[in-house]
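Worked Example 4.2. Read the sequence first, then its structure tokens.
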Amino acid sequence: MMNPEDLQILTATPSVETYRHLRAAVGLSPKTPEAAERGLRGTLFAVQICLHDAVIGMGRVIGDGGCFFEVVDIAALPAHQG
């Protein structure tokens, strides 16, 4: 069983590679590197969950920065869900 003390919360936008990997691993629609790079630029806030320096989950907030915000790209590797 995983020890919660082994988890690290990183408040940073994931890299294109990490973003694409997590999306594919959890069955979200695939994104090209170009689309991922463009979309990630619109991140207002992001969080990554790391276990022993490996990113196992993520979530992002996008929006217009004033009135509208949306939580998107919530993903946790299948081995760490539940």
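Now turn to a second chain, presented in exactly the same format:
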Amino acid sequence: MQVFLYLCTIFSSFCMESFIYKDSTVAFVTAAAQTCLLIEQCAEHDREEWREQMLRLLPVLYLRTRLLEPAETMMEEEPQRFVTEEDYTFALVGIRNLLGSDDAYLDVFVDRGVYTDEIQTSYISEGLADIYQELKDLAAAFQTGEEPVMNDAVVLCREAFDQHWGRKLLAVMRALHDLDASMDEL
């Protein structure tokens, strides 16, 4: 019995120090999994209900990502990507079908703080499918149960957030907010 208690003490102290078991990481992975689930199940919701749930979840995802503690990769090689083109297309088409003509919104292209006068049409479905791809790869890495794989997946997902999907998340939130506000006026 004493050996068991000793091993539990060692394991719990290891878990407390490991990046993937920190509260901020667990909260981030939970928000990521909830986002993936809501995207995958969009056909089971009506448009207004789904939009409302997204408007509640996306700010949480953004905050949880920003609150991640800094960490380093553990493996030398790039982690495996799990999301297939079919997975991406499933998410994209599901959202596009749910939103219909409300999928498109006007956006101003911004690159590293340089604004242009160029207005382009963007799509909520494309932004969310891009975010889904990053988050689903993370979730799949956690399903392996291998700590180095999980650690590196979180680190790389956070880097991708800084590089591209954080801006997409904010653009999608703004588009969903504008859509929600225009529905309230009706």
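Notes for the reader: The chain is about 70% helix and 10% strand. The domain at 2-185 is CATH 1.20.120.1550 (Four Helix Bundle (Hemerythrin (Met), subunit A)).
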